[in-house]
Amino acid sequence: MRLSDVAVVGVGLTPQVKRSERNSLQVALDAAKLALADAGLRHTDVDGIAARWPGPGGTELAPGSADWSTLLGVPIGWIGDSYPQGVPALVDAAGAILTGQATTVLITGGQAGVLGGGRVASYTRPGNEFVEPFGAFTATHFALVAQRHLARFPHARRGAAEIAATIRTTGSANPDAVMHGRGPYTADDVLAAPPVVDPFTLLDLCLASEGGAAIVVTTLERARDLPHPPVVLLGAGMEWARQQYVDPARYDEVWSLGADAGRKAFALAGLGPSDVDVAQLYDVNSLEVARQFEALGFCATGEGTDFAIATGIGPDGKLPTCTDGGLLSFSHIGWGAPTLKIVEAVRQLRGTAGARQVAGAEVALAAGAGSGAQYYNAALLGRAR
């Protein structure tokens, strides 16, 4: 069997909002129900799950005695809990399915009831020795990398603002986006926004919002009997430099982070960057989008912003990017955010993205994390043939 014998058959999103009255476990379960309904499956069809585990061990979602087997009312034969969201979870699920550990895997997550007021979100300031005592937060780690890059390529500052403006304008037109109706934006708007951490302004940086996201993965054979056209996993790759947000990121080590992951993903798929029709990059900030274009081989180092502008990353461009408005404008739901990228990729490949649909999209790139986080992952998804 091959990776392309594994398909995403269901996607589910709860409302994406600035603040939710529900909690993280509730929105993850809500998203799971939506994804199963979208797949035409029942909870009893699930025999594998990748999710932050509510009970003991693993990446804890919430304290207490709840567990996914009880919540779903079924025994679980396989659990993915090392990085149970986005591309890593999808790859783990594919491995479980291809080796017979599971037949149908649910991937779900998100956050709710954890944000409030004007405080920095707690997960952006982990209790590490070089972070919490100095008041650092995740955007600072990315800013250190960005400062070094802009010292080498000063022209990229305005180009990064152009990228942010384009993605935010895309999100402004999406009725489901947290920032719906808050555009259009220009590069000047981005540059003139309140500064947060040099070189980034408020409009350069992604949201902190709340909601859930889920996908359902199964075999291509089974997928052909389900309601939607199957979207198969063509290739994937991952890189882990070190634990995120402990040691400051070093520019020379992380600017090209993702190059190996991209090469693995494209090689497994038998494709190249020019074959990608839509790119759901992990847009935690404006310059990170340009960095990913460079690392993934779309262009050379220092040319990321020029590539984005010349190619066109808006809905009418040659490479529509973050077509739902991305983390900058659609939503960023903490641990669940990487799964948002797969949800949008699947919708584009199915042809069900509505007014933002990219005509003829056959290959989608979905990615997660980046330079400041010091790990990266990427997957190529395509229509089943």
UniProtKB/TrEMBL annotation:
Under InterPro entries, the record lists:
Thiolase, Thiolase-like, Thiolase_C_2
- Organism source for this protein? Pseudonocardia broussonetiae
- The record places domain Thiolase C-terminal at 259-382
**One Pfam family from the record:** Thiolase_C_1
Q: Which GO terms describe its molecular function?
A: acyltransferase activity, transferring groups other than amino-acyl groups
Q: Can you tell which superkingdom this protein's organism belongs to?
A: Bacteria
Q: Give the matching SUPFAM superfamilies.
A: Thiolase-like
Could you identify this protein by its name?
A: Thiolase family protein
Source organism phylogeny? Bacteria, Bacillati, Actinomycetota, Actinomycetes, Pseudonocardiales
